[in-house]
Structure formats: structure tokens, C-alpha cells
Amino acid sequence: MAAKRILYVITDLDLGGVPLHLFRLARWMRDQGFAPMVVSLKPLGPVAQMMMDDEFEVHTCGGRRGWDFRVIGRLAKIISSSTPDVVHALLFHANVAARQAARRINFPPDRVVCEIQTVEVERRWHLLVDRWTHRGCRFTIGNSPSVVDHLATHARISRDRLRLVRGGIDPGPLREAKPIDKTALGQPDDAPIVLWVGRLDVVKGLELLVESFQPIAANTSSHLLLAGTGPLHARLTHLIGALDLSDRIHLLGPRDDVPALLKSANVFVFPSRTEGLPNALLEAMAAQCAVVTTDVPGCRDLIQHEENGLLVPYGDVEALSCAIRRLLDDRALASSLARRAAEVVEQDWHIEKTYAAYRAVYAEIP
């Protein structure tokens, strides 16, 4: 029997969480006997090259920035020529393009699967488009209970057309990582570290985090490390300087040693306004970091207050500061929460369960 052909469609293959997730998923599916192919709406990026080096068939629709409706016709031709058994699109633009391309060539909508990985609060028109077009696919996948509930409530997609595929990670490398040499970061070896990792973006609550650290810096020897890059870099640099915290808050830029950083942190803090299912938070939990995060969708799917971390209201600078200080001061509590967080990842958010759930969704496709 021929291998089931899956055509994955994604908005771009630049370096980022979802393209790398797709690369790992495609490899797992190939190992399971499937025949995956990949299409990027935009020109091929670094992850595309990684896939081609691993002998995947990768195509591009050559789309420009923003809405380039020509990609729909180009994608329709790729679907028609590759004759997949399943088309699986990831992220909003790819979802819309896949639904419309399939419609153009009469590709059965029951063999199209779309996926959303965020609780959309900024571009609510995305939810309207999903409401109008979701019948162009058999299922819409959400990667956390919060995402699925959000799609049911705000995009009004019926529950029988929604599927939950919990996101996940491989906790092994994080569990086994060794702490970094603090002096290599310019930190005193005995200084407690508060760590954040991710994209420097306005939805991440980073300005609030910087403000919350001011009383902590005044009363402890702790340092705050922000690992990542993004459009908020200049604003954060200005704010850190304005609060006279340049010697205590450090913008590390992009890092390739995140597991080691996590193993060195006393507290991992993640004050986002919205998430789908944050991999950075999952990785911190797997590395046995004590976690403070906001009580928002995505984060609350992972953290239960005072069971495996601390939750605070988004936007409450004082509550955020107090929670961080609490874990810095109470090491027994921090250790207990961190240990339970790692257990939760192993039990509920292991990547093998994620891949098995995808395979179960594909099994429902005629």
C-alpha cells in the first residue's frame, strides 16, 4: 500500500517556532511511513534549506509581503500536481490560502486540515475570516484547550469541526542540560538570575517585566536576563536606561544555549498578554525552573497556581514583582513548584503524544 501523502502548507519557512515545529513533525511522519511534502507561501527561508538538506520535497508560491493573492493560484497548481491525500495548513494566511486553493480545483474539503496556534486578541478580523471560511476544511486544529475554546467561542466554529492536538516538546535535552558559566555572561557567580526567553514583542509584557524588576533590583542582588530579539529591542533599551537598571537588566540577543540558560535561572518569568501554547514556558518547566507567568490563555493551560508555578494577573506590575520576589526568597517553594512543573511536561506535554495526536487526526480523513 502506498504511503499516505501529506502536503504541509505554511506561511513562511523562516527561522521560528512554527516552521521548526513543522520540520520536526514532517520528520516524525516520514519515520512513521507517511510521505510529507512542504509548501511555503513566501520565498524559501532557512528552515526550507534545512528541510531540503534532509531530502524533503519543498515548494514555494513566491508570495510577497502582506496579502499576495497570486499564491492561491500557485498553491492550487501544486496541490493538483502533487495529488496529496491530505493538505495540512498551519497559521492564518496558509489556512486561508489552502481553503481557497482547494476550492478552486475542487479538491475535497474533507481532506484539508487547518491549524491555529494562538489565541487571537489583536487581529480579531482573523476570527471573522475563520468563521466565514472554516467549512473549506474538515478540521481546524488548536494546540491548546484555550485555542480550541477561543475558536469555538469567537470564530464560532462548531466543536465537531475542531480538534485538540496539544503542543509538546522533547524534555530530555532540557532535563540533561548543564548550567551556563554565569561569569561568561558578565554576571556575579552568586547572583540570582531571573530569566525570560522569546521574541521581543509588545504582546510579551516585557515593559511591565522591566518595571516590576525595579524594586527587586533595589532589594536583592538579582539580575534579569532577556534572551531573544524582536521589534521591541529599542524601546526596552531606552526603558532600562531610563530606570537606571542597565547594570541589572541585560538584553542577551538571540541565543543557541537556551537549555543552559534555563538550567542557570532561579526564576523563569513569562508575563505575556496572550499566547497559544508557549514553547518557551514548556521548556522552562522541563528544565525545572520555578515559573511566574500571567493568568492568560495558553499560560494557564500549563501552570496551575501554587501547584506547579505562580500565576499573576496580566498588567499588574506589583503582583508580578511580588511573585518573582516570593520565589527568589522561598527556595523550598521554588524547588517544589519546579519539580512538579517538570513532571507535568513529562505526563501531559511530551512531543510523542503530540505527534500521535496528529496521526489520529489524519486517520479521520477519508
CATH fold group of the largest domain: Rossmann fold
List the secondary-structure elements in sequence, H or E. Answer: EHEHEHEHEHEHEHEHEHEHEHEHEHHH
Overall strand count: 13
Number of domains: 2
Structural class: alpha/beta
What is the radius of gyration computed over CA atoms, rounded to a whole number of angstroms? 21 Å
The appropriate CATH architecture of the largest domain is 3-Layer(aba) Sandwich
CATH class category name of the largest domain: Alpha Beta
Mean pLDDT metric: 94
Instruction: Give the helix proportion (percent range).
Output: 40-55%
Tally the helices: what do you get?
15
What does this structure look like?
46% of the residues are buried. The chain starts with a strand and ends with a helix. Strand 1, helix 1 and strand 2 form a beta-alpha-beta unit. It has helices at 17-31, 46-53, 70-82, 92-104, 125-133, 145-154, 172-176, 206-219, 233-242, 258-264, 279-286, 299-302, 317-329, 331-348, 351-363, and strands spanning 5-10, 35-40, 57-60, 86-90, 112-116, 139-142, 162-164, 193-197, 223-227, 249-253, 267-270, 290-294, 310-312. The chain has a 7-stranded parallel beta sheet with strand order 3-2-1-4-5-6-7, sandwiched between helices. The longest helix is centred in the last third of the chain and has 18 residues, at 331-348. With 366 residues, it is an alpha/beta fold.
List keywords for this structure.
alpha/beta; Rossmann fold; 2 domains; six-stranded parallel β-sheet; single chain; 366 residues; 15 helices; seven-stranded parallel β-sheet
